[in-house]
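Per your request, structure below.
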């Protein structure tokens, strides 16, 4: 007697899109698409929901303005410089307070 192993197949993102495309663009019935690929219709509809909920990200990345990306990079560099200056200033202030204490000025 042979036992059937219940292994789940892992689909890549591009495979999921191709499966969704066969229904959405080619007009094939969901039941046919699911039977062909051996997936549960619930899984198909979950992929479809995720696809539509995250689809806007494709347009945001593709449409990102190069000038805006440069500005973001510049802001990151400037923020890093400010953090470094704050650290140096903190060290200098700590040394100042220590020297002032040893000289009896505090």
């Amino acid at each position: 007697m042979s036992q059937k192993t219940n292994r789940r197949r892992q689909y890549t993102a591009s495979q999921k899109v191709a499966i969704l495309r066969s229904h959405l663009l080619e007009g094939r019935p969901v039941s046919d698409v699911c039977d062909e690929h051996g997936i549960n219709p619930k899984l198909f509809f979950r992929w479809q929901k995720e696809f539509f909920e995250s689809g806007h990200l494709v347009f945001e990345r593709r449409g990102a303005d190069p000038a805006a990306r440069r500005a973001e990079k510049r802001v990151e560099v400037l923020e890093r410089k400010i953090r470094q200056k704050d650290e140096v200033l903190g060290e200098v202030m700590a040394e100042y307070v220590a020297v002032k204490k040893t000289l009896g000025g505090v």
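The chain is about 75% helix and 0% strand.

Regards,
D.
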